[in-house]
Structure formats: structure tokens, C-alpha cells
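Need a sequence for this fold. Nothing fancy.
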């Protein structure tokens, strides 16, 4: 988003009020009153004992500092205990948590599948997309036919409405109004139906792929991890091409789909 505000210019030039500085009025100091001629207590009592309040204040100050240091030390000890022992916090330990899977030979066996290539070459995915496109086209065609018929009927009413009786005009207008309201929501309903059909098809497609990969892996390489690689969204930036099993998965999926499709056609 482009911001047009000049950062070197105030948000509102008029928001700063000018402050008028008035010259201070000349003031003359008052004449000092004569001080009474009194002598200080020290001068009156030169042999009086010295005040010990200064020493008392120093002792109080030292005591306060000592108390503060003790409080800080206790706080640090409690913080250490809470942090490293977990006292005062909710325990996240679960004795029934699933243990991590460790490969027998000490190394994970990893493979990857390019899902973009798979969807482009998997015949079931191709047929499924063609079926969805036909369904979408049929829904759009149905909507356009209803819109065209409504416009035609409305123009006919404008041309012949004067020849109708009042009751006929009211009935025709009520019908046209009802059809107009229906068309206003029909497009959204058809769009929702297409989206739901697309979602259901994607779920079925993914279930087929996941099931085949799981069975194929169990019968062959038995990889610990099989990752998905796509052009726009990939969990890895690089993977050894030797780990790519896309072609053999596509070949197996197409062979399976050919068999299932042949069985359906024979029924």
C-alpha cells in the first residue's frame, strides 16, 4: 500500500497554536525588614552537648540498604527455582505421548513426489477436471437461459401491458418481481454448488492418491517419509533428484485407474 503522507510534514499544519510571549512586567523587590538582633543557640550555650541525629540517620540508611539487598537476593533465588524446576507452571509432560519413530538403521529413508506433474499426468485427475468443467458450463448455461427469458418477458410486458386489464397487469408484475428476486440469488447458489462439487472431487482425488502411495510404499521401498513438492508451495528448497519417485507413482496410479475404469465399463 502506497502512503502519500509526507513524513517530513506535520499531519496538521494548523494543529500547532502560536504562543504569544508577553514581556514580563518590571517588578521591584520589597525593602527588607530589619532582622531581630538575636543570638544563635550555639552562641548562647557554647557548652551544650553535640547533636547525635546525624549518626542515627546514617545507621538507618545502612539498615535500609541491607534489607533491600536481602529482598533482592530472595527474589533471585525464587526466580531460579521457578525457572529451572517448573514450580508454579503447568506441567506439559504427558506419560502417554507417542514416542518418536526411529529408523532401524539409524537413517531416515525419504522420497518426494511432484504433485504438479502427478495431477497433469494422472488420467483420473484429468477426467475429473473435464467433468467439473462440464458441470460448471451447464450451470452457467442454465442461469443465462433464465436471465434471457426473464428479459424477454419483461420487454413483452412493457409493450403489451397497456392492453391488459388492471388485474392482469398486477398479476404479471407480481410474477416478474418474483422471478427477478429469484435471479438475484440464483447466481450465488449456482456458484456455491460448483465450489462444493469441486471440493468433493478434490477430497476423493486426494484419498485415492494417499491410499495408493501408502499401499505402494508398503509393497516396495518402504520409505519413512514421502514429501510433496509443488512449484508454488514446497516444504523444501532442494531435494536430491534420486529421491523423486513421481514417474513410478503416476504409472501405478494410471494402471490402477485403467483397471477400475474397465471394470465399471463392463458392468
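Here you go.
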Amino acid at each position: 500500500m502506497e502512503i502519500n503522507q509526507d513524513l517530513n510534514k506535520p499531519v496538521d499544519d494548523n494543529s500547532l497554536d502560536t504562543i504569544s510571549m508577553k514581556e514580563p512586567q518590571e517588578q521591584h523587590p520589597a525593602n527588607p525588614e530589619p532582622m531581630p538582633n538575636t543570638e544563635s543557640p550555639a552562641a548562647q550555650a557554647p557548652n551544650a552537648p553535640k547533636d547525635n541525629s546525624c549518626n542515627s540517620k546514617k545507621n538507618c540508611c545502612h539498615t535500609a540498604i541491607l534489607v533491600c539487598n536481602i529482598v533482592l537476593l530472595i527474589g533471585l533465588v525464587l526466580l531460579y527455582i521457578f525457572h529451572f524446576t517448573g514450580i508454579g507452571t503447568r506441567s506439559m509432560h504427558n506419560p502417554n505421548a507417542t514416542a518418536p519413530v526411529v529408523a532401524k538403521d539409524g537413517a531416515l529413508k525419504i522420497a518426494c513426489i511432484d504433485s504438479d506433474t502427478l495431477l497433469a499426468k494422472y488420467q483420473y485427475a484429468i477426467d475429473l477436471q473435464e467433468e467439473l468443467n462440464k458441470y460448471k458450463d451447464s450451470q452457467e448455461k442454465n442461469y443465462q437461459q433464465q436471465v434471457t427469458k426473464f428479459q424477454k418477458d419483461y420487454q413483452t410486458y412493457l409493450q403489451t401491458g397497456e392492453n391488459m386489464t388492471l388485474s392482469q397487469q398486477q398479476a404479471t408484475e407480481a410474477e416478474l418481481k418474483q422471478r427477478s428476486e429469484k435471479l438475484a440469488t440464483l447466481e450465488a447458489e449456482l456458484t456455491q454448488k460448483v465450489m462444493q462439487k469441486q471440493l468433493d472431487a478434490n477430497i476423493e482425488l486426494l484419498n485415492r492418491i494417499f491410499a495408493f502411495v501408502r499401499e505402494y510404499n508398503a509393497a516396495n521401498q518402504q520409505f519413512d517419509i514421502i514429501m510433496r513438492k509443488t512449484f508454488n508451495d514446497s516444504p523444501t528448497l532442494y531435494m536430491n533428484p534420486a529421491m523423486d519417485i513421481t514417474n513410478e507413482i503416476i504409472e501405478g496410479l494410471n494402471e490402477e485407474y485403467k483397471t477400475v475404469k474397465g471394470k465399471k465399463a463392463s458392468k
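For context: The chain is about 60% helix and 5% strand.
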